[in-house]
Specification:
single chain, alpha+beta, 5-stranded antiparallel beta sheet, 21 strands, disordered C terminus
């Protein structure tokens, strides 16, 4: 007996032979039904059969691209992203009206014929031949499905899409053979299900579920008869019958479908007449695609997740492979974002800096010991309008960020950690004069030395003339004494500092190599807020550095199967000893409660932090931490043009902006909100004996370097803890040092043969 199809009728081979026989009699119908002139149908039977036989036996059906859902750590939705807005559903979850409507209008004999409707072919051929143009097509639902598969496989490549839809004999032959295969392998119900899921319904909606949600804000299983008829009518020409833009044309087309449903007996004449009187009843849901739609102000976090996916080899060996997986979609990505922390960050930012301000702010929160990024926000929202941006100000340039910002004295604890690891005692004393030339020579990593230009030596000074040593590490750190830290780095060499920075994940935001110059002690190399937050998390976790991660898990749905994908893991390694980290904690602990940074204080919760304000006040920072959370806040002009003097930020006027006054309160409010309800943890610290026995009445401060008042010698670019026990002086002085032009980036001003800033190597 001849082999039968699952749906009954002739076998594929018999069907092909019969079809090709009819094609010979009709002038190669294979292509002619889609071509305007009979003369174009001259394809010989032998050539048709040979072309047919040369095609591969099996059609490779690509998985349907679907939307990707990005979730926070608690499973709440952040955003949906997609190249195709599609949600694949089984046929049982599609309204029976919808199933009948699409069959009635597109292929009413669907259940009676095989892959090709021979009666339909002859009817269409006859009509097209008489009219001299394509007045009627004859593609079955199966053939349409096959064509849509080719279009889906083409993706967004316009050339491939054109090839998949071109009106050629070759394409028609290929479409026919694969239609025969699909009919034999799938059967009618599965073909209908696949067709409804792959078809484009206009308004960025692919598949019936997305279409039902787009036009009626309901599921496909809940569509009534007139709604189903409307969607079925759109398929033929989504632009022409678009109900959003042409209601009258859409109603005409809907009513044609309803009439056809009555003609074939799917509904009664009375039902059709009643449905034709109904309004369209649209309840349109606008397409919500991409990070611009993210909840909780998490557009930049969403964008960072996308960058991680497209750049991390765990998701594919090449960028093209990773992009293909991303565009395929169907992903559910659970991230590390803590919704409480994200809410707290955005609320604090909104309270302190307006999106219309001349300057912006960005903040990041990281969990010590895990590297999990808990929050990421900024004052200028994700978007394309005025006062919006797509640049993520919290991250490095390679991950969608900018060129970074000089962190000022928030870099000094890294220098201190390098010195302690090198064996320097915590009570080390340096002369720390008010002003000095950079010490020279200074050793660097490659065995050479940085040498200051003897003819025009680069100099630096402290924040005001009263800051004159000697100082020990505790007081110098509390007052952020520039000359102390430059003497320190010249003593231990530059290499231990850049090595420690690398161990802590501290890199330039633009990807350039950290230069071997002594000015790095003063925070002259541009960093991102995420980098600084993650670096300080190393102190909080007692010296263990963990690389930042944003993704907890990824699953992908392909067809009716769901699989888990590998995700990037944080790599933790020891950057410094526990003793060194505990010593840094002792240097920095508690100062946010008592000193110039007390506006960033967390009440009874132990915390530590540093302020930083750069030369010319282009940037101000606060970077701080508790044992269970670290955060960085930057405020400044991303374009590095507006100095923060005589400026209004968040509705408040400032003569001068400094780290303790603007970034500090942002950090404090953010941390208080993010940590509310979470355990209060204590630091491990060590006792640091005084290295200098000062007269307690000389105005240089007590042994903790702080005072209950908003004190004297100031910590611009310095530790948030205060200083002057006498309470005199400007509590927020101007930055204390001036760097010669070209000094930050290691340019040779002195005619030497090196690349030191203003100096030379010898």
């Amino acid at each position: 007996m001849p082999k039968k199809r699952s749906g009954g009728g002739l076998s594929p081979t018999q069907q092909a032979a019969k079809f090709l026989g009819v094609s010979v009699l009709a002038g190669a119908v294979l292509a002619g039904i889609a071509l305007p002139a009979v003369g174009a149908l001259g394809l010989a039977a032998k050539g048709s059969v040979e072309s047919f036989d040369e095609l591969p036996a099996n059609m490779k059906t690509p998985p349907l691209s679907q939307r990707t859902t990005i979730l926070d750590a608690d499973g709440g939705q952040i955003a949906t992203v997609y190249s195709r807005d599609r949600t694949v559903v089984p046929l049982k979850d599609v309204s029976p009206y919808m199933q009948k409507a699409i069959v009635a209008i597109e292929d009413s004999r669907f259940y009676q014929h095989g892959a090709v409707d021979l009666k339909g072919v002859l009817r269409a051929l006859n009509k097209n031949a008489r009219s001299g143009e394509v007045a009627q097509g004859a593609s079955t639902l199966t053939q349409q499905y096959v064509k849509n598969v080719f279009v889906e496989e083409a993706g967004d490549d316009p050339t491939k899409v054109a090839q998949a839809t071109q009106q050629t004999i070759g394409r028609k032959i290929r479409e026919l053979k694969y239609a025969l295969q699909v009919e034999e392998e799938l059967g009618k119900k599965k073909i209908l299900e696949n067709y409804l899921n792959i078809t484009f319904f206009g308004q960025q909606a692919y598949g019936v579920e997305a279409a039902a949600q787009r036009y009626f804000s309901k599921s496909a299983k809940d569509l009534n008869v007139q709604e189903a008829a409307l969607l079925a009518g759109i398929v033929q020409s989504p632009s022409r019958y678009d109900p959003v833009n042409d209601e009258a044309e859409a109603i005409k087309r809907r009513n044609i479908v309803l009439r056809r449903m009555a003609d074939v007996g799917d509904i009664s004449r009375a039902q059709a007449a009643e449905a034709m009187k109904a309004p369209l009843g649209l309840k349109v849901s606008k397409p919500r695609n991409g990070c611009i739609t993210a909840a909780k102000g998490a557009g930049f976090f969403c964008d960072y997740v996308r960058e991680v996916f497209l750049n991390d080899p765990v998701f594919g060996k090449t960028k093209e492979e990773r992009a293909k997986v991303w565009n395929q979609g169907g992903l559910t990505i659970r991230t590390t974002m803590d919704p409480q922390a994200q809410d707290a960050a955005q609320k604090s930012i909104k309270d302190h800096v307006y999106k219309s301000d001349e300057v912006a702010t960005a903040a990041s929160l990281v969990q010590p010991g895990t590297g999990k990024i808990l929050a990421m926000g900024q004052s200028r929202p994700y978007g394309f309008k005025k006062n919006e941006t797509q640049i993520n100000l919290s991250v490095d340039q390679s991950m969608g960020g900018g060129m970074g910002y000089q962190p000022g004295s928030t870099f000094k604890p890294i220098v201190a950690a390098a010195a302690l690891e090198d064996g320097m005692p915590a009570n080390k004393v340096y002369s720390s004069p008010y002003q000095m030339a950079y010490p020279s020579p200074v050793s660097v990593c490659d065995g050479k030395r940085w040498v200051n230009d003897p003819d025009d030596p680069a100099k630096l000074e402290n924040e005001n003339e009263s800051e004159v040593g000697p100082y020990d590490m505790k007081e110098a750190t509390a007052k952020s004494v520039n000359t102390y830290y430059v003497q320190m780095i010249s003593d231990i060499g530059i290499c231990p500092v850049t090595t420690m920075a690398k161990k802590m994940g501290v890199v330039r935001a633009d990807g350039d190599k950290m230069p071997q110059v002594p000015s790095i002690a003063l925070g002259t190399q541009e960093m991102s807020p995420l980098t600084m937050a993650n670096a300080y998390a190393t102190f909080a976790s007692r010296g263990m550095h963990c690389t930042p991660v944003a993704i907890e898990s990824v699953t992908q749905r392909v067809g009716d199967q769901t699989k888990s994908l590998q995700v990037p893991k944080s790599t933790c390694s020891r950057a410094m000893s526990e003793k060194t980290a505990d010593t840094i904690n002792a240097l920095l602990r508690g100062v946010v409660e008592d000193g110039t940074g007390k506006k960033a204080g967390l009440g009874s919760r132990p915390s530590a932090g540093k302020t930083g304000t750069t030369d010319e006040r282009y940037a101000a920072w606060f970077v701080g931490y508790t044992p269970n959370m670290a955060g960085a806040v930057w405020v400044g002009d991303p374009a590095h043009k507006r100095k923060m003097t005589n400026i209004t930020i968040g509705g408040r006027s400032y003569g001068k902006v400094f780290g303790g006054e603007v970034p500090g309160p942002i950090w404090g409010d953010m941390m208080n909100g993010a940590l509310e309800g979470k355990p209060v943890e204590n630091f491990n610290t060590v006792h640091i004996p005084d290295g200098v026995d000062r007269d307690r009445g000389d105005g240089n401060g007590d042994d903790e370097g702080r005072d209950d008042g908003d004190n004297g010698n100031g910590l611009i670019g310095g530790l948030v803890g205060g200083n002057n026990g006498g309470g005199g002086g400007d509590p927020f002085p101007t930055p204390s040092f001036s760097i010669p032009e070209g000094f930050f980036r290691g340019q040779d001003n002195g005619g030497g043969n090196g690349n030191g800033n203003g100096g030379r190597f010898g």
